[in-house]
Amino acid sequence: MREETLNLLCNPYKGEPFTRNGNTLVGVASSQTFQIRDGIPVILAEEGMRGRNRTSKFLHDTWAFGYDAIVSLGDKIQLNSEQIVREKYIAALNLASGTKVLETAAGTASNLFHLPESAEYYGLDISYQMLKRARRKAKAAGREIELVQADAAHIPFRDETFDLVFQMGGLQFVEDPFKSISEMARVASPGASIHIVDEIGGAIRTLSRLPAHQKYAADQQSALEGIKRLAPQGMLDIASQIIEKTDFYALSFQKPALPGM
Question: What is the C-alpha separation between 3 and 32, in angstroms, rounded?
Fold first, then answer.
């Protein structure tokens, strides 16, 4: 972890900055501690490890060693379309030089290689084993990325830190999709765009477990409309679309800019 990253981190459970004592992050008010494990801050508390979060962490830790190979095989035999999504949508994200980017549910950081090297990247995932593979891949490719283990509903970065925040393939696995998207908006800078990409089947499953939104889980078109309701109140340019020639959708919106910007 770079020292300058410490200035961006915060305790998401207490809303406080950290000080660093060796390989330990210490909350300045609560004295709550989190470890830095082989350079990766592990900012996870028990309240972030319920239900789907716990299951997702276990599954991705278990299968991290073969995850990329499985996804690659699925693309080749057309069982999934992640590579097309990266080429058509992720690579088309508008990133100027020096843009500060956060990917939640970053996994093994496969999206990193479809974005320009001139931006500044941060990746968050609940699975430490996936992050280890992400770091190894980035190092082998000569790419820099700062990694943090945390859950997407408790993002351990300060308010209004990032110029772009995105997630691919993670929303259907989180325990609280509303809070996860709200957290993405919180850490986005004023005027920043937020993008959530997932399987359209995942949108149906996500909406079906939200009592007030179950009526939108009837079919793909209903889900595409219903998923927009997960955007936080006050966001601008809320849009959803099916990514052409894939089974993925994209939800996007913009955080309002400050007056005068």
Answer: 20
| CA 198 vs CA 41, 68, 72, 94: distances in Å | 26, 17, 17, 19
What are the φ/ψ torsions at residue 107 (nearest 5 degrees)?
60, -130
pLDDT in tens, 8-52: 999 999 999 999 999 999 999 999 999 999 999 999 987 778 888
The CATH number of whichever domain residue 71 belongs to comes to 3.40.50.150
> What long-range pairs does 231-240 form, CB within 8 A, spacing at least 24?
231/181, 231/185, 232/181, 232/182, 232/185, 235/185, 235/194
Least Cα distance to 108 among 76, 63, 152, 74 occurs for: 63
Tell me how many domains the chain contains: 1
1 in a domain, yes or no? no
How far is residue 215's CA from residue 198's CA, in Å, rounded to a whole number? 19
Distance of CA 137 to the CA centre of its chain: 18
Percent of the chain predicted with pLDDT > 70: 96
Q: DSSP letter at 179?
A: H
**In the prediction, which pLDDT does 261 show?**
60
Q: How confident is the model at residue 69 (pLDDT cuts 50, 70, 90)?
A: confident
| Domain enclosing residue 77, as ranges | 51-254
